[in-house]
Write a structure and sequence with these properties.
Blueprint: H1 4-17, H2 33-54, H3 56-63, H4 69-97, H5 103-106, H6 109-119, H7 126-139, H8 143-157, H9 159-176, H10 194-206, E1 212-217, E2 222-224, E3 227-229, E4 234-238, H11 240-246, H12 261-267, H13 294-311, E5 312-315, E6 327-329, E7 333-335, E8 341-344
Antiparallel strand pairs: 1-4, 2-3, 5-8, 6-7
Helix pairs in contact: 1-8, 2-3, 2-4, 4-7, 8-10, 8-13
Length: about 350
């Protein structure tokens, strides 16, 4: 059975990427079977891939070049995910070229990407643009869903943090909004809502959806702190243990204040400043290998969390700590969400 939050994040990602409300998370809303199939195939792909990477039998068979039944399942669903993703992108592009997009679709991420591609200077081919778009879409059923789930859980468990974010958002809307009480792009400027950004950063430190931020195989011998490593050595940047070590005194406490400007300034020039390196900032890596959908995912997380906190008071009855919540590995590390309570905020 596919977890419901995978459908939710897929829906939200579609609204940003295509400007389309697909509604797969709402059983009362008519949806295209192909969209539901995409989420189901992506979920099966991720779970099967994890088995291939962890099961001793599958690992040995893989090293021997033997294709197991699990391997076949993974390949079939991988092909289907890319088939559906490529088809959605190509159909959207064709409708864009024929002038058939509605207002929401014209404002979408993909519509702007198509315009940038047509203008030239992007450094990628049209087929590469389609492939990147497909990868971004697949991320909605993986890293993004896990990121959003952890954020929601921490907000529900820490009522003081929740109220501070609500107050910051309400103030920002009053001072920068259009007067209609709705969120706008200006509200998500880091200088306008620093505490909201700090909440997202603290979530990633404490419960990273992707603890391994970057992988690198060196092309020549390299020396690090006097230790030489030969050509072909494989390095992994892992951020979870760093966050635990830097804040050893209360590493398991959820404290977004760690990421406010004054706290970051106080760490500069000290060994603790390593935690502020870009590689430890989010689950998307950095540089040439940075996830191409990172901006979309970050914006989605900010908007979803902000709107939920403006509309609802959220709690987790019977749960006192994130350590009480089990989690599992799909493509990313995701909590098995407990029953949550949403109480409407008074208007």
């Amino acid at each position: 059975m596919v977890p419901s939050h995978l459908f939710s994040t897929f829906d939200m990602f579609n609204s940003i990427m295509f400007g389309q409300l697909v509604g797969t998370a709402d059983s009362s809303t008519p949806t295209k079977e192909v969209d539901e199939e995409y989420v189901q195939s992506a979920s099966t792909l991720l779970q099967t891939n994890n088995i291939l990477n962890k099961d001793p039998y599958e690992i040995i068979m893989g090293k021997l070049g033997i294709k197991t039944e699990k391997y076949g399942i993974m390949v079939d669903h991988l092909k289907r995910v890319f088939q559906i993703g490529d088809s959605k992108v190509h159909q959207f592009t064709e409708r864009k070229n024929r002038g058939e997009l509605n207002d929401l679709e014209e404002k979408s991420w993909l519509a702007h990407a198509i315009e940038r591609q047509a203008a030239g200077g992007t450094g990628i081919t049209d087929e590469e643009m389609v492939a990147i778009s497909g990868i971004i879409l697949s991320a909605s059923v993986d890293t993004t869903s896990s990121l959003l789930s952890w954020n929601l859980l921490h907000i529900a468990l820490n009522q003081d943090v929740q109220e501070r974010v609500h107050e910051e958002l309400s103030t920002a809307i009053a001072s920068t909004g259009s007067g209609d009480g709705r969120l706008s792009a200006d509200i998500f400027n880091k200088k306008t809502t620093p505490y909201l950004h700090a909440v997202l950063r603290e979530t990633f430190r404490l419960t990273p959806a992707a603890p391994l931020a970057s992988f690198k195989k060196v092309g020549s011998e390299i020396e690090i702190h006097g230790q030489k490593f030969p050509e072909g050595s494989f390095f992994i940047f892992e951020g979870y243990s760093t966050g635990q070590r830097v804040f050893a005194d209360d590493a398991q406490s959820f404290r977004p204040e760690r990421w406010l400007p004054e706290a970051i300034d106080s760490r500069k020039g000290t060994p603790q400043a390593v935690i502020d390196h870009a590689f430890f900032r989010d689950p998307f890596s950095q540089g040439a290998r940075k996830c191409p959908g990172s901006r979309v995912a970050s914006n989605e997380a900010q908007v979803m969390l902000a709107q939920l906190l403006l509309d609802w008071k959220i709690s987790v009855p019977g749960v006192d700590s994130h350590n009480e919540v089990p989690y599992k590995l799909m493509g990313a590390m995701a909590p098995i969400m407990p029953t949550m309570e949403f109480v409407p905020r008074s208007s």
